Structures are given as C-alpha cells and as structure tokens.
Amino acid sequence: MLNLRSYPPVNWIGDWGHKPLGSQILPSRRFPIWFFCDASEISPRSESAEMAMDLTVAPALLGYRMPAEWEPHQQCWMGWPERPDNWRRHAYYAQHIYAQVASAISEFEPVTLCVSASQAFQFDISVEQFVVFNSNSHSELPKYQVAGIDWTFNSWGGSDGCYSDWTLDILVAQKILYLERLPRFPHQMILEGGSIHVDGEGTCITTEECLLNPNRNPNMSKEEIENELKMYLGVKKVIWLPRGLYGDDDTNGHIDNMCCFVRPSVVLLAWTDDEKDPQYERSIEALKILSNITDANGRRIEVIKLHVPGPLYMTEEEATGIQNLEVAKSRIAGTRLAASYVNFYIANGGIIAPAFGDKKWDENAFCLLSSVFPNHKVVMIDGAREICLGGGNIHCITQQEPAIPRMK
C-alpha cells in the first residue's frame, strides 16, 4: 500500500530570477527520471481516472498493509522545490540538491519528479511528456494490488503550518494515483507520511508531539487516531514516542527525523552524547520507552544509536535569501536546524543519506548505515543542509511506491 508523504510545495509564487538549471543537473542514470505537470490538471474523464477508483472500506478489511520501506519499490516520487518564501534564492540551491538526490536514487530505481508547469522549461521537455509512466493496464483488480491512502493535508499545522495556501498540495496524492491507475483510499484524518514508520509486520511507530498536536486532529482522541492507523496501515500495534527531534518545529516532531525501523524489531534512534544538548533529553526519553516495549509480534526492540551532527544554525546570509511574502513561516537567522542522519531514503539496494559537512559525524553515519544495511550501497548527499533550511531532509522529500508483489 502506497502511503503518500507530504511533498514540498509545487505551487509557484513569484518570478524566476535564475538561469534554467537544465538537464545537465539530472544526468542520465541507470533508471529513468520521469516528470509530470501541475496537480491541478486532474480530469475525472481522463483515461487514467477511468482506470482508478476510490475505495471507501478501510484497507485492512480488504487485506491491505503498508509494507516496510526496505521492501521492493516500483519507483520513487519527489516534489520539485520552488517557493521563494520557503527556499532561498528562488530555490536555486535547493534544486541542485534535489537533483543530486534524484540522480542518486535513480542508480537503484526509477524516479518521478512532480514539477509545476511553470518550472517545465528547466528540463527542455513538453508538458505532454510529463505523464509517461509505466502504468499497468489491468481492467480489474488483481489478487495482489498496490493502492494508496490520500490523507488530508493542512500544511503541517493549518494556521500554524508552513504556508497558508495548500490548495494544490491536497491534489497531489489523487493525481499520482490516477496517473498510476491505482485504487485510492481517501481519508479525512490529517496526517503526513513522515509522521509514521512501519516494520511491515504489524508495528507502527510515531510521536505524540505530532499526531496528538491540536493543529492536526483536535477532535480525535489518541485511541481514535491509533485505531485509524491500525485500520488504514494494516498494523496491530502503535508505539508512541513523546517527542521528535529537537528543533523540528516545521513538522511538529515527525518520527522520520527521530527514529526509524531498519528491519523488524530493530530501530535507529537519533542520538547525542552531549548532555547539554536539548536533544539529549529527548533521545534518553525515547530510549527508555523503546527499551521496555515489544513489537506487534512480541519481540523486544533493539535500538541502534545514530549520532546527530553538531548543532547547525541558519546563517544571516541563508535567512536573507528567503523572500518574506507573509504567506509562509518566517525563516530566522540563528534558528537551529533539525538535522538528523535518520532522515534517509531506502532504495532498491541503496541508502541515500544526508551529509551536513560535519566530518566526524558524517563519517560515523556512513559507517553505521553501511553496517546496518550490508546489502545496500550507502550514498551520502553532501550539502543536505540546504534541505534542512526549508524543513526536513531526504526521507521527507521522497516517497517510495511499492512494487506489486509477485503472485505465488
């Protein structure tokens, strides 16, 4: 089951003030990099729409489950950054880093970039070429079928969120599922995929800081939210950590910056040895819970500590490069960046992880990830700090599409 994470904004604001990046920043790799245009161009009479369908029954009742991220992928989805009130210098630097991430992932699996029509000129391709996908052409649902959950989105907190207009963002999941001709499970609960992690065997991990935040689902209790996770993700147990990474105010403590499964009953936990760092208290708090709990199958949780980089802060130069259009969250110099190596992407045979220019902890992360994933090639993306400036990191800006399981 495809559980759509929230993409960076794809609606265009302001004027483009830089030379086109062009195809040279998206070099030809082992797998293709596809594109599609604005989410607003959804037609219910299109061929893709006719092949898709909305399902109103909870996925778990139909036998669906959300697979673990290390299970085989059909492809990876990314959203192209462009908002000048969220990314500095009209997203010029962020786009270069996103291109590096896309190219790195494409060594292991196909990548599809969600690009607004106003940005299409950068890639020297026509809008018609944006929707060239490896869509299946089944006229009815096979026994094993990938489907997607279309959660409700409110820009990570509504009036307290990252920006004030998300009218196009809420169409992205529907657009993807129509183009891929996959069933869609619409849901009214507000949730971003980065706020949950699953092991593929019945266990979900999340944070109270995010899911119980009054800016998400104030009319739902913890029990009600947990029940919805079980019914829509196909899990049997939800592990709640109190808080996410220190400084992760953009997402209100997404779990994907704090802790993630790397295989059943084994997690990586963002860690620091510095007792004076505000993150230390959060890491200790999470460790105590994880060390005294079992997963859905009764197994004790093994915790592997992954040290965060030394504290990083937004510089004056970085802050002044972001336009203040009074419709997005202010980016202020001196703000601590929510930097964590836990925020990586698992591809088919590859690990794409952030590097922050901290030689000691960058090398530590590379070695530890290489040992945790011995059958994967670890690729560190230099300059991932740029993603932090706009919020999140590599796991936040990517979304795996599960491959359709082979029928036995």
- CATH class group: Alpha Beta
**Poorly predicted sequence stretches spanning 5 or more consecutive residues:** 6-25, 41-50, 125-144
Report Rg.
20 Å
For the biggest sheet, the summary is: 4 strands, mixed
Number of strands: 16
Q: Return the CATH topology.
A: L-arginine/glycine Amidinotransferase, Chain A
Question: What is the count of distinct domains?
Answer: 1
What oligomeric assembly is this protein in? single chain
Question: Distance N terminus to C terminus?
Answer: 18 Å
Strand content range: 15-25%
Q: What is the CATH superfamily?
A: L-arginine/glycine Amidinotransferase, Chain A
Q: Number of helical segments? A: 9
The global form is: globular
What structural category do the secondary elements indicate? alpha/beta
Pfam families: PAD_porph
InterPro entries: Agmatine_deiminase (IPR017754), Peptidyl-Arg-deiminase_porph (IPR007466)
GO biological process, one term: putrescine biosynthetic process
GO molecular function, one term: protein-arginine deiminase activity
